[in-house]
Amino acid sequence: MPLVLTTIDAPESDACYLALKARDARFDGAFFAAVSTGMYCRPVCRVKTPRRENIRFYRHAAELPCAPRPARS
Q: Which of 28, 37, 30, 67 is nearest to 55 (CA)?
C-alpha cells in the first residue's frame, strides 16, 4: 500500500504550532513541521519559530516532503 502524504488539518495544526512555539517536549515525536525553506522542525527545536504560514505539519517523519534537512539547533 503506497504512503499517502497528509498534512495535519486545522484546528489540530494550530495546536501543533502552539506546541512548537512553546518548545513543548511532551509533543516530541507526535508531529513534524516542514518549513517552506526545506527544513523540518520537531517540537523541541531551539531555533527561531518559523512563521505560521510557512509551515505544514505531518504526523510521521516519513511523510515529510522531499527529505528536508533538520533545522540547526
A: 37
